[in-house]
Amino acid sequence: MNVVDLLLKLLSFESITPDDAGSLKFIEAYLDGYEATYVNKEGVKNLFLTKKFSEGPHLCFAGHVDVVPAGDGWETNPFVPVIKEGKIYARGTQDMKSGVAAFVQTCKEVEKFEGTLSILLTSDEEGDAKYGTVIMLEHLKETGCLPDYCIVAEPTCETTFGDAIKIGRRGSINGYLTVHGKQGHAAYPEKAINPVHQIAAVLQNIAGVNLDNGDDDFAPSQMVITDIRGGMEVTNVTPGSLKLMFNVRNSTKTTQEEVKVHIAKCFEGIEYDLELTQGSYPFVTKRDSKIVKNLSSSIENITGLTTKLSTAGGTSDARFMGAFNIDVVEFGVINDTIHAPNERTSIEEVEKLHRVFTELIKNFKS
Questions:
Q1: Beta bridge partners of 230
Q2: Which of 142, 204, 262, 365 has the most CB atoms around it within 10 Å of its CB?
Q3: What is the pTM of this model?
Q4: What is the pLDDT of residues 206-225, one digit of tens each?
Q5: Are the CB atoms for 166 and 330 separated by under 8 Å?
Q6: How far apart are CA 316 and CA 154, in angstroms?
Q7: Is 125 marked active-site?
Q8: By the 8 A CB rule, do 361 and 291 touch?
Q9: Which of 19, 20, 66, 330 is catalytic?
Q10: Of the residues 95, 124, 125, 349, which is catalytic?
Q11: Domains (range + CATH), the chain
């Protein structure tokens, strides 16, 4: 098989989270020269394939075989890949079986590498990810097998293949705030404490406000109000409380504690309760890291483009690599139809991605 044939095969597995639908066993058999380790839990399957070629660094390719449900609006069967005008249509083409196909085919074809190559795959990235990549990394740490460098082949390019790689991701802080007032009759506002009126003057200090100035790697951490609700949906009763929800996609310059301090300052004199949760933590791989420099060089050799180093977007399993102090980057095909009906990617992008990974392995050096 070539990389396109392999992608078509992977797309035919109806691997909706957390079901791998047999795809991991297929990949294990396809890479018969690699040692396989499974760490499975609560219906989630995680596969680690490794092969030591010589002494040297340990380079890992990582990704997920699970996909989100197809949903409505498809013009073709989402699990029967169709090629039209040079593009492949099926659920998972961009997110992220194209990336998996590219690095699996690369690892199958490689004959020489100064170090160890491995592949880490999970069937639960699109879900809670509680029993996915993170528990495999915990196992690898216990056995002394953590990689030095990792590429997660998520779709990262913006408008042209090769135009962007991710060298980090912002964290995600979720806020749940309840403002306590005193319910009353709308005709007697002096007898009530209206929490809607209380936050009116506060909103300008929290809605869309930057909590830091950002830096060369990250945009400013901004408070984004996602929900405000209070009252009884009547016109003659002032509400007794108000609930507000917000999210902060935070850089390494803003912590959960600093968000708490900002809220306390803004709501001084107002009775409120605040709950903060951290969905993910920010991380960044240094721009002079071996993996960043070598991947950028490989992309330029194949595409002629000088790639942008980005930290934009949501979360991915790269956050777990960062938490284990692994130098990690993300690179894959164009991201413009993920999770949408008629998800698709081009044959040209898949072939180029395979060539970039092959080039990287061939020239991986300090």
A1: 242
A2: 262
A3: 0.89
A4: 999 999 999 999 999 999 99
A5: yes
A6: 8
A7: yes
A8: no
A9: 66
A10: 125
A11: 3-169+282-362 (3.40.630.10), 172-280 (3.30.70.360)
